[in-house]
Amino acid sequence: MEYKNFIASLGLENIDSALIRQAVTHSSTGNADYERLEFLGDRVLGLVIAEELYSRFPDEKEGDLAKRHAALVSGKTLSKIAQDLDLSSMLVLSDNERQSGGHNNDNILSDAVEGIIGAVFLSSDYLTSQEFILRIYDRYIDTMTAPPQDPKTRLQEWSQGLALGIPTYELVERSGPDHQPQFKVRVSVEGYSPAEAEASSKRAAEKEAACLFIKTNNIE
Of 6, 22, 85, 116, most Cβ neighbours within 10 A? Predict the structure, then answer.
């Protein structure tokens, strides 16, 4: 997809194209990259989603709204949105980063989505940013019929219900550079095979490991 067509597909023709370009540029290039825009976009995204959930679900308690919010602004959802936008083909990466699979790296893709949101906010205003965010998020909010349960909580309730004790989480490995670390975590429950998962933070890796354990063992 050509760059101009990419911007048009996002409906962002009136947004500063140089900022959009920066929003999809990885630090490995040595050029102006998305990190500061991602920082800003993360905050704008959080506010827009919080406001939308507050309006859409007037009868829900704070805890349930927080669960919805956490799921919607997670790297997992952002990487899905990046796929919806065909963002991998537009990422500006160093040759080494691309050869190592950076264009399909969920962390890079999710950061770039937040970078684009930051670029939209800087080039326009809150309402324009809100419209863009809700447009790319609409189906994810609509299909969330109930507040998602945290996988670690779900796994713990299951294991304690069977008198198996509390699941244990172990950091197996930390790899990658300081600016882009990866954490591999193993979760174990007595009498069951452990599950391992990797993510850009220890907390996220624990959640992914819990999800994998639940899926592997067909836990309802």
Answer: 116
Catalytic site residue from 38, 114, 206, 208: 114
| Beta partners for residue 173, in sequence order | 184
Domain count for the chain: 2
Q: Which domain holds residue 19?
A: 3-142
- Same domain? For 121 and 44 the reply is yes
Residue pLDDT, tens place only, 184-198:
999 999 999 999 999
Concerning whether 150 is annotated as a catalytic residue, the answer is: no
Cα distances (angstroms) measured from residue 208 to each of 126, 150, 169, 185, 186: 33, 10, 11, 9, 10
Residue 116 CA to residue 123 CA, distance in Å, equals 10
DSSP H or E stretch at residue 145:
none
Same domain, 90 and 60: yes
The single residue of 38, 42, 97, 208 carrying the catalytic annotation is 42
DSSP category for residue 101: T
52 in catalytic set: no
What confidence tier does 143 reach under pLDDT thresholds 50, 70, 90?
Answer: confident
pTM of the model: 0.72
Question: 169: which strand partners?
Answer: 187
